[in-house]
Design brief:
Number of domains: 4
Distance between the termini: 93 Å
Length: about 375
Amino acid sequence: MSEDKVVAKHGRQVNQKLKPYMVLQYLLKNTDENHVVDGYTIVAALENWGISSERRSIYKDIHEINKASLALELNCTLQEAEKILALDDRDDSKLIVYDSKKKGYYVRQRHFDLNDIRLFVEGIYASKFLTEGQAKRLVNVVCEFVSNYQAEKIKHNVVVVDRVKTNNKSVLNTISLINEAMSKTMDGKPHSPERITFKYLCYSISDISKQIERKRGQKYMVSPYQLLINNGNYYLLAFDHYSKEMRTYRVDRMKNVSRTGQPREGQEEFLKIDLKTYMKRVFSMYSGEDEEVTICFKNSLLDVAIDHFGRKDISYKKIDEDHFLVKVPVQVSNKFFGWILGFGDEAKIIAPDGVVKEFCAYMDKIRGMY
């Protein structure tokens, strides 16, 4: 026998130990309830990886895989799993099953079903704080949990309209660093939450192709308390050491973020905030004075109002066949006024008088521009 044949034979013998693992990986990638493969196809695939096999040994590998999977799922011994499979030959307890109609094997159980993965992918594509490259990479990672056929279908069926992606490639690292700064443990040891510094970016009308540093590159110093997600963007809720108040910052606009080692401040201000109420009241992260406002809407906007304000602790009242009133605590700001204005004559602020006057002044200011 030639030296090359001896080496090849030895390689195949070593690779035999990997055969069950490769069978499982092949089935995970290439099968689902709509796509099955027979023993001959699996043997051919193994041959391409340098593993010799007989069809009958494939059946044994599949049985062993099902046994190991069941033992892990039930937290029992392999012997106990063997007995369960022997007593109950139904497909419900098996990871890999045989379809007698299609005459082939496929993976039945997965960590996530197809709808789970589709939801994950849609969430990734809808996240504006991820770059296009990061989104594609994460989608590929998530799609490892389904077959190639299902992954291809998911990627082609997801459509996100006009979702502007950030160009900041360091966002994920920034999020990790902020979490470290807020952490009360580090490497299994106690850690005191600390301040961070960063430069904040914005666009300039002179060149919108790139962002520039705000305050001429001066560093911001804040005490981070909470990461928030709103409208596809990541925000940091932090105590600003200059203004002595809680403020929000777009994470994808933060640059050169560093931990300082200095103790965090602003605990009292943070504890004053109810996060659920805060998220519900703050429109697009713009601050304003808290007011209970009464708004009259046309009935056609009821779903819009409920989606925006929610139902819990919010008063909705029918006033005639075409209109309803809603009393809701909001943070009154130009952003809130702009939101109301977008409904034209289908929404009207009724009370309090002070907010009505502010809104009229806001509209007068806009009219004065034309």
